[in-house]
Amino acid sequence: MDSEGFLNYFCPIVSCFVSYLCYINDLIMANIDAKFERFKKLCTDILSQSGNCKESQADMAAANTVPEMVAVWLKYWHGLITEVPQQTITALFEVYDDYKDEINAAGVYFNESTDKGEVLVGDCPNVLKFRDKAKVYVLGKAEVCAYDHVYVYANNEEAKILLNDYSRGNIHKSTVHACDWSSVITDSKKVFCSDAATVDITGGVVYDDGHREINAYKGTVVYSDLKKAILLDNTSKLLKKNS
Q: Quick one: how many helices (H) and strands (E) in the chain?
């Protein structure tokens, strides 16, 4: 076969192959665009259910990348975790595997141990441990251990929170163990403290094995064999641990 015949034979084949590759690339890009738009719509729908809905939706509409979308989350983070917690967990769960690197780069993590950023925790079978200055938001059934200066917000009856070192907690409903020099603000019915922990509790129950300070309000019951540094309002009471 001469060179002209060779070209006449193979050029159509190469052209078809190139066209096929372009077609596959177009499909991939279309799929990526569709996933991104689905992600964006999911975020917009959730923001529409929380406070500042018009402003937050406008900010999300202006976001053109995943980091920009995550920046919008962080701007309205308090509303997301307190007003629409389950919707927020569901949305992050749906997209996290697809966009994990970009979401992490923007400072947000989901159901994993880390020592930095904002961490959203839903239902999780593994014990999660956090150090340094991570900020952790526990909205599902999970067990979390906090060290150093970690901050933990929790609002799930089936969650268990262990505060160590100088960590801080704002705990609603969840079981909490405050140890070392940690501090907690809570209304939980299952609060355990020891060492030099500080507990501010409203309408809950404390089981005390040691503390720096306990401040109890609105019908709280404190079970302790100690009296020092336990402040009760006129609706709360101190009982012996075996009573």
A: 5, 17
Residue-wise pLDDT for 158-181, tens only, equals 999 999 999 999 999 999 999 999
Q: Is residue 3 classed exposed, middle or buried when 0-12, 13-18 and 19+ CB atoms within 10 A define those classes?
A: exposed
C-alpha closest to that of 158 among 185, 144, 140: 140
Amino acid identity for residue 145 in this structure: C
Task: Give the span between the Cα atoms of 142 and 123, in whole angstroms.
Answer: 6
Continuous segment of H or E residues that includes residue 238: strand 237-239
Can you give the pTM of this predicted structure? Answer: 0.84
**Tokens matching residue 171:** 């705990």
Q: Which two tokens stand for residue 7?
A: 């070209």
Q: Which two tokens stand for residue 33?
A: 């665009």
130 phi/psi in degrees, rounded to 5: -130, 140
Residues 6+ apart with CB under 8 A from 15: none
Which pLDDT belongs to residue 59? 87
pLDDT tens-digit series, residues 202-213 = 999 999 999 999
- Determine the Cα–Cα distance for residues 92 and 73; give it in Å rounded to an integer: 11
Say what the pLDDT of residue 176 is. 98
